[in-house]
Specification:
This protein is α+β, with helices and mostly antiparallel strands. The chain has eleven helices and 17 strands. The N terminus and C terminus are likely disordered.
């Protein structure tokens, strides 16, 4: 994130604007489900650690997706601490608890003994799995600023084709932005509703990408399961007060993969290029730079294929004294897999959710269902 900060610092160049940025972030995030309240008499912070969910792409040197991997093929560490997988899924297939998979294997071998870890709180329960539905919650953020005037209809066509092509298990929301955010279609499995919304979008004024992307991420974070944001942008941000490094960190902490499709104009602008590439890489997504409408459609097709081939992994973090940024590393186990490339988010920030005077600050809270 240090490189992100060095590249993106041009967004805020004065203390007044940085203070305004901080104030806006606090306002935008004030509606979070988790609230912080102070109590008299030496209250202690209690940290609630939820299930950490990862979208993981595995490809070879040519970018071809590697399929049919199993839970034991993955190794996850958080701040160097080995983690134990709780759930596993491939593509839009069902999410399974590792304890269920182990019991199935024992049953196939004729072993009726109960699993010794069946009561382990680190293993996801059936109730938890009911919230981890197949498919993804896809939020499309469409640039309708004055940068988009020339290619507006072509962009609408590309988005419409993308919506039609997504797996039927996916739910889709369409947002548009110029200076402000417009929630054109809220999250729904109804493709016709989203397609109608695409055609109702109209070009606006200046672009506030990072402000509106922050709001989109906040909306997406309220949903459970796999979440992605797909941004279609035709130019640099010229109206935001929120620095992009804060937006990237929110996406990482919420477990939301960000994909960005930008036109050639933005690629010729070095600051926007660096921001888009680093923000998407940090969240496990991708950045695309389209020279024409054909490239735009190819970029959307690539994102669709990515969503269909992602592995969904989750774990309950083991005891860790770090109450700030936690680094996540995912590797493949086995010499035969060393040549493959793994892409996922690089970490998240742990935030205190409540004060509790009867809870020592060294105690770990019981794992909660995923957010």
């Amino acid at each position: 994130m240090e490189d992100l900060g060095n590249t993106m610092c041009v967004v805020t160049k004065s203390w007044p604007r940085r203070l305004l940025s901080l104030g806006m972030i606090l306002i935008l995030l004030s509606g979070s489900q988790s609230r912080i309240s102070a109590q008299e008499g030496g209250s202690h912070i209690r940290v609630v650690v939820n299930l950490v969910q990862l979208n993981v792409a595995v490809t070879d040197k040519n970018g071809k997706y590697i399929t049919d991997l199993h839970p034991e093929n993955f190794s996850i560490t958080e701040d160097g601490i080995p983690q134990r997988l709780a759930t596993f899924a491939e593509g839009n297939g069902p999410t399974r608890a590792l304890v269920d998979l182990a019991q199935e294997r024992k049953g196939a071998q004729g072993d009726d003994q109960p699993d010794s870890n069946s009561n382990d709180p680190a293993i996801a329960t059936t109730a938890t799995l009911q919230s981890l539905i197949a498919g993804a919650n896809v939020f499309i953020l469409f640039d309708t600023s004055n940068y988009m005037y020339r290619g507006f209809v072509f962009a609408q066509d590309a988005i419409a084709d993308f919506v039609r092509s997504l797996d039927t298990a996916d739910k889709i929301a369409l947002y548009s932005y110029s200076r402000d955010l417009s929630r054109v279609a809220t999250l729904t499995p109804d493709r016709s509703q989203v397609l109608r919304a695409v055609r109702t979008t109209v070009a606006g004024d200046e672009a506030a990408l990072y402000n509106t992307l922050l709001l989109t991420l906040r909306d997406a974070s309220q949903y459970k399961g796999r979440k992605v944001v797909v941004v279609f942008s035709n130019g640099p941000d010229n109206s935001s007060v929120v620095p992009p490094e804060d937006v990237a960190e929110l996406a990482q902490s919420a477990g939301i993969s960000v994909y960005m499709i930008s036109t050639q104009q933005a690629k010729l602008e070095p600051v926007s290029t660096a921001v888009f590439e680093r923000m998407t890489a940090a969240t496990g997504g991708k950045a695309y730079f389209a020279k024409n409408w054909r490239d735009e459609k190819r970029a959307f097709a690539s994102i669709r294929d990515d969503l269909a081939h992602l592995y969904s992994l989750s774990y309950y973090p083991r005891s860790n004294p770090n109450r700030g940024w936690r680094a996540i590393t995912v590797r493949l186990v086995g010499d035969q897999f060393k040549k493959y490339h793994v892409r996922t988010r690089t970490g998240y920030r742990l935030a205190p959710t409540r004060f509790a005077s009867d809870t020592p600050n060294t105690a770990e809270s019981r794992p909660q269902p995923p957010q």
